[in-house]
Specification:
It is a single chain. By secondary structure, this protein is of the alpha+beta class. The strands form 6 sheets. Strands 4, 5, 6, 7, 8 and 16 form a 6-stranded mixed sheet that branches. Helix 5 packs across helix 14. The chain starts with a helix and ends in an 8-residue tail after the last helix.
């Protein structure tokens, strides 16, 4: 990251903002660039690049020419930026509107839009402050974007670059490379879809992100024209028909996979089993897959599904405990994931080396533009938050104290060209409390970027699915205010659409919410797929929240003696037990709530993530990460139990493998080998 370039861009911006009549190129070269060595041509190229950078930030660099003789002479051309150029309009919110806004911003748990939402809220704070807001109990939804592919596609969509990726076609089952102009991203039927123009087919196409079999390559040297006027990805996805219900036949190890059994029916085939079909059983000659006999020690079950890939992902995680009998496309989906996982596990292991401990994050090259963007937020933030401790300021911006001090040192050296001390930004932090007394007209933040506008407006649209939020007038009014503030960038939010967040089981949610409000302890009967068992628990309910449309109860579990998160759809029974919650039960300090609460006796696991799977580092709260050649990632993650990690590796089909501890790595390797053995005999393998 070039500090000199950041300082140059900032000084150029301040100079152009604080001139009434404009500055000539020669004046800028002498007073801002202090350039006396390069040629006129070289300086001209640098100046044009810098103007382009400022325009990318949304500042309108005006060209002023004198009328009359010599008005077309570049030497007489002057440049300036209007005082109102790219400034965020004032937005006044009520406490009720602020509550809705914070909920919308918190929807994006991770990834680029999560950072964009934080930046947008910080800009609103700097523009005049936001009133205090208290989040309602039980209404804390979140959206988890579809991995690294989602981020890459959002970036390409907003910058209008085409993308290339390998894709498994649902109609043919063939894997092909696709070249697409990304128009919009949205969620439908619980899956993320890309809508775009397929260049090879010269037509609009829909691509499910879970069917991408490679990383997304952004062709940043090319561009495309925007989608047709009025394009709305939610309307496009609404036209998609839901897939028909089909039935798969699987052999399941006796006494295992209780969750799968709960939604399955036994298959009794009189051609292979003596006697009449049992009560509640299912028999169909079409489900026999050529008469393949049921293996000893297994039960044959029929499972309904709509999409082979979705079911295949689940069944692959069960490894050798399940064998797909039919149909062939489900068996192929399982075999493909298992094969990809086994191939990844068999590759030579990279050296395990991490930088010094610290908060993990997806590796990304930082640039001077990133630093300038932060500084343009930092100055108005300090103006409206005088005297904050420097550590708190750093925490608000998600950077280290050293990085913040580097920013402040650049700021205090920036100001008007050849100005007096009073013409420089004046910031002091000698006593660790930061004060700014000279702001040089940088008191108002810049307008929302496309990502920031999309993060907030898409979040607000998603909240329409929650009746208790949508029925109030605050959601509509804050949406209108932010649309007006976002301007043209807000119109581009139609290219992004979030999932439905309404709970599937409202009765369970209301019982939990009532217990939280009254302080009543609950007794649960809960199914854990990792342990493949049902347990009885007494819990102190603390908070409700969701991830997409899956809702969770955060509670203190008296059986585990710690905080736990329970999926509402896995709670088989729940009722107050007549006891009050313990006075010591407190929710986790931060929000969003982590799906996993670390403990001192957890196992530290080192995993390697393929480029397509780097988002798993965020999903599982990696403590340390290290970039690998080719775009992969090493991640150090804490797990309370390692028994289920072979399932984790199989499910993600070549996106993750265990490196340490060695025993866990060996267990996952053996799990995959045992699962693949069931499909290797060509005479039995149920794949066309």
């Amino acid at each position: 990251m070039s500090a000199s370039r950041t300082e140059r861009l900032l000084n150029l911006l301040i100079a152009l903002l604080n001139t009434k009549y404009g500055l000539r190129r020669s004046e800028l070269r002498e007073k801002v660039y202090h350039d006396t060595t390069s040629t006129d041509v070289a300086f001209g190229r640098m100046f044009e690049r810098d103007k382009g950078e400022l325009r990318q930030f949304g500042f309108d660099v005006e060209t002023v020419t004198d009328t009359g003789w010599g008005s077309d002479d570049p030497a007489t051309t002057r440049y300036r930026i209007g005082k109102e150029s790219n400034r965020l309009p004032d937005v006044s919110l009520t406490p009720e509107e602020c509550t809705v806004l914070i909920l919308a911003a918190q929807l994006w748990e991770h990834a680029a839009l999560g950072s964009a939402a934080v930046d947008a809220v910080r800009k609103l704070q700097a523009a005049g402050g936001l009133p205090d807001a208290e989040l309602p109990t039980g209404v804390q939804p979140r959206i988890r974007p579809a991995g690294q592919a989602f981020e890459d596609l959002v970036a390409a969509m907003h910058s209008q670059h085409p993308v290339r990726f390998s894709y498994l076609a649902g109609s043919t089952g063939e894997e092909q490379e696709r070249l697409v102009e990304p128009w919009g991203l949205g969620s439908r039927f619980g899956q993320w879809y890309l809508v775009g123009h397929d260049r090879d087919r010269s037509d609009k196409r829909f691509f499910r992100l879970s069917r991408l079999t490679s990383a997304v390559t952004v062709l940043d040297k090319e561009s495309f024209t925007p989608p047709p006027a009025g394009f709305n990805v939610r309307a496009e996805l609404a036209a998609l028909a839901e897939l028909p219900v089909q039935t798969a036949v699987v052999d399941v190890e006796e006494g295992r996979l209780l969750g799968l059994r709960k939604r399955a029916l036994p298959v009794t085939d009189p051609a292979q089993e003596p006697g009449e079909p049992g009560s509640g059983g299912l028999w169909s000659g079409e489900l026999r897959s050529g008469g393949r006999r049921r293996a000893a020690g297994t039960d044959r079950l029929a499972v309904t599904f709509r999409d082979a890939e979705t079911l295949g992902e689940e069944l692959a995680s069960y490894g050798p405990r399940v064998t797909v009998i039919s149909p062939p496309d489900v068996a192929a989906a399982v075999h493909r994931r298992l094969s990809a996982a086994a191939a990844f596990v068999a590759r030579p292991a990279p050296e395990v080396a991490f930088p010094e401990a610290g908060r993990a994050g997806r590796p990304r090259k930082r640039t001077s533009e990133d630093q300038l963007k932060r500084m343009l937020q930092l100055v108005p933030f300090l103006v409206h938050n005088q005297g904050l401790h420097i550590s708190e300021v750093a925490a608000r911006f998600g950077i280290t104290r050293k990085a913040l001090e580097d920013d402040l040192r650049i700021l205090i050296c920036s100001g008007l060209p050849e100005g007096y001390p009073d013409d420089l930004l004046d910031i002091q932090w000698d006593d660790d409390h930061v004060f700014i007394t000279q702001d040089l007209d940088l008191t108002r933040p810049v307008r929302f970027t496309v990502d920031e506008a999309c993060a907030l407006l898409t979040g607000l649209e998603t909240l329409n699915g929650l009746p208790e939020i949508a029925e109030g007038g605050a959601l509509e009014s804050v949406t209108l205010k932010l649309m007006a503030a976002a301007g043209e960038e807000g119109l581009k939010a139609a290219a992004l659409s979030g999932p439905e967040v309404a709970p599937g089981n409202t009765e369970t949610l209301e019982t939990a919410r009532a217990a939280i409000e009254s302080g009543a302890q609950l007794h649960l009967r809960y199914f854990s797929p990792q342990r493949d068992a049902v347990s009885e628990r007494d819990v102190d309910p603390l908070r409700l929240y969701s991830l997409d449309n899956t809702w969770y109860l955060e509670a203190y579990c008296h059986s585990a003696n710690g905080l736990r998160n329970f999926r509402l759809d896995r709670i088989e029974a729940m009722a107050p037990n007549g006891r009050p919650v313990a006075a010591t039960a407190k929710p986790a300090d931060s929000f969003p709530v982590k799906l996993f609460t670390p403990n001192d006796d957890d196992t530290v696991v080192v995993v390697e993530l393929a480029p397509r799977g780097t988002g798993l580092a965020d999903d599982y709260y990696a403590e340390r990460t290290a970039a690998l050649p080719g775009g992969g990632l090493l991640a150090e993650i804490r797990f309370g139990s390692t028994d289920w990690l072979p399932m984790f590796v199989a499910q993600h089909g070549g996106m993750v493998r265990i490196l340490q501890p060695g025993a866990v790595a060996d267990a996952s390797r053996e799990w995959l080998a045992a699962a693949l053995t069931q499909y290797e005999d060509s005479s039995d393998r149920p794949i066309d």
